[in-house]
Design brief:
Elements (H helix, E strand, L loop, with lengths): L3 E7 L6 H9 L6 E7 L6 H14 L3 E6 L5 H11 L4 E6 L8 H10 L9 E3 L2 E5 L2 E6 L5 H6 L8 E4 H6 L9 H10 L4
Parallel strand pairs: 1-2, 1-4, 2-3
Antiparallel strand pairs: 4-8, 5-8, 6-7
Helix pairs in contact: 1-2
Length: 190
């Protein structure tokens, strides 16, 4: 069985975190884990995390969290990578959401991948919305030329295999998603 892990980095995220966590609870599957890494928030973020912990347990969704000072979002993501157990890992912003069938679609797509020479990165379209207005769509259409000019893949719309992250010794103090993506995709480009 394919296992998915979602890492959420938070810091003073009281205004957006409930919506993010609700989007995970609204998924059609429960066969994933959620790890929240908080950077030592001094607002209501920790209270919200504690409030949602039993909701995840009721939904039979693995949920783990920690709160301690960190060096920012990439440091938090690295701490999360040390805690997850899934085969495929995604980084969800504390102000991002998944549509209700997103994890089902990712899981089905992963299951349908070829067994030999399977890719280590799966990504989808992402809508960037401010308020209720769609600002732009990151279309996820891959082209090396396009990727060299600008980021056409968003972390919130991507899952990366644990083996590629760990084999690249990715757990370094600062790692940017574009570097991860560049390494993953660069392996497939001639």
């Amino acid at each position: 069985m394919i296992s998915l892990s979602v890492i959420i980095a938070t810091f003073n995220s009281e205004k957006t975190l409930r919506r993010t966590l609700d989007s995970l609870l609204d998924q059609q599957i429960s066969t994933f884990e959620c790890v929240v890494v908080d950077g030592g928030s001094n607002d209501e973020t920790i209270h919200i995390i504690k409030e949602y912990e039993p909701k995840f347990k009721t939904g039979k969704i693995s949920f783990e969290w920690l709160s301690e000072p960190d060096g920012g979002i990439y440091d938090a993501w690295n701490k999360g990578l040390k805690l997850v157990t899934g085969d495929w890992i995604s980084f969800l912003g504390s102000d991002d959401i998944y549509l209700p069938d997103a994890l089902t679609q990712y899981q089905e797509s992963i299951i349908s991948l070829p067994k030999e020479n399977a890719p280590h990165l799966l990504y989808s379209n992402v809508d960037y919305v401010k308020g209720k207005v769609k600002i732009m769509t990151i279309d996820g259409v891959w082209s090396w030329k396009k990727f060299q000019r600008y980021m056409c893949i968003a972390h919130v719309g991507s899952f990366i295999t644990d083996c590629i992250l760990l084999s690249m010794d990715i757990l370094i103090p600062i790692i940017k998603f574009v570097a991860i993506t560049n390494c993953c995709l660069g392996q497939k480009v001639n």
